Each structure stands twice: as C-alpha cells, then as structure tokens.
Amino acid sequence: MKISDKLLQVQEVHKLYGEGQNETAALNGITFDVLPGEFLGIMGSSGSGKTTLLNCIATMLKPTSGKVLLEGQNISSFRGSHLAKYRGSKIGYLFQEFELLDNLTARENILLPLSIHGVNPKKAEELIQKLAKQFDIDEVLNKFPSQMSGGQKQRAAAARALISNPSIVLADEPTGALDTKNAKILMEKLSSINETDGTTILMVTHDANAASFCSRILFIQDGVIFHELRKKVPGESRNSFYERILTVIAQLGGGSINVL
Q1: pTM summary value
Q2: Which of 23, 38, 80, 257 is paired with 236 by a 20 to 30 Å CA distance?
Q3: How many CA atoms, within 13 angstroms, populate the side-chain half-sphere of residue 126?
C-alpha cells in the first residue's frame, strides 16, 4: 500500500489524562489507516477510548504522543489559522445531539460552514439542493429546529457536515438520539452517499445496527485495537455482517482476545 493511498493515518497515538499515580491512558499507542472512500466504524465499551480517538482526529484534543496524518499532513501539530482551516474545510463533524442553532433555519444551519468561508452563493445553492434531495429534507429547509422531527434535524446536521465537501466525515454516535426508524433512514442515506459519492466516513457507535452499514469495523478496548471486522465483498448481506458484529461484541464484553 502506497502512502498516497492512505487518507488518514493514526500512528502510535497515546493520550494520557492526569499526573503521577492519577495518570490514566485513554489511548495506548493505537495505530490504523483509513483509505479514501471507506465507511469505517469504531466500536467499544464506554471508557474504551473511542471518543478520545475521534476528538484527536478532529483536533479537539491533542495526543500526548504519536501522530495523526490527513492526506500526509501531521494535523496533530496544526496551530492557529492552519488549524481553523483544517477544521472548516477538511473535516465534517456529525454530532449525536444535532447541534443545530435554534435561531437559524435548516437551510441557514446547513450553509453555515460555507458562509464562514465565503463560498459563492450560487455554488452554495447548488450544493444545498443536492444534499436536501439526498437526505430528503427539501420540505424543512425553511423551518427552524423546533419545527422539525429528530430524524429531520439529524439529516439536516448530516447535510451540514457534508456541505463543504470535506476529506472525511467524523460521526460521533449519530443514531444515539434517534428512534429505530429514523436511525435506519439516516444510516441508509449516509451509506448511499458513501457509495455513490465516495465520501469517506469514520463513525463511532455503540449500535450494532448502525455499524452493519460500515465496510470495516475496528473494536477498541483499553485504548488499543482489540479486533477488526471487514464486510465480505461482494456477497455478504448486512444481516450477516450484523450477526458477526454481535459475536465480537459478546467476546469484547467477556474480555476474550481470541475472536475469529
């Protein structure tokens, strides 16, 4: 595999909290790569380090040691305007609790990343029309969050994460605040965009159903990779992949490291 083939590289990343006897390792030398166009899931129990990992990639946290490279650049070392540009143009972030601004319409919320960076209004309108169609939210573009269902709010938030055409979308428990029906709708939309547009998605989730839409899953325990699952392509159904995910989750809960 050539370096140029790797969109994201996480190299021996450690993240420590506290000092002395109170020091705790949230990440313990984790290493993996993400290829362009992948839909990668990160799973693990609470306290396993998966959210810390996502926040290091998003530059919300700085690793204690190790490197996070995006398109060959060491983003762990970014500062000031360079860091702001990275956050604004290279990553899209999809939060569990939507994080829409209540005083803005869905359209205004989605366009916010482009407004900050001064994108041409005509181009912005083309982008929002495409995403509104993909996420089936045309009818709520002029509504405020209080006038939208939870599913509509999260699909609007997903459109906002994608509007700037980021190199990678980071999704933190995106189905966590949704019912089963809306969770499935969201994951079908994200999966479709991943397949048709080649959008790279890295998703942290507890939800095996959501994870079954991924092409690969990394299971994290105690700040390191415990196991990896890949969907068998072509041919494996989502239901079959879901069953394999449940098997690993059961082993993870039991502490076994011998997972097939």
Answers
A1: 0.90
A2: 257
A3: 6
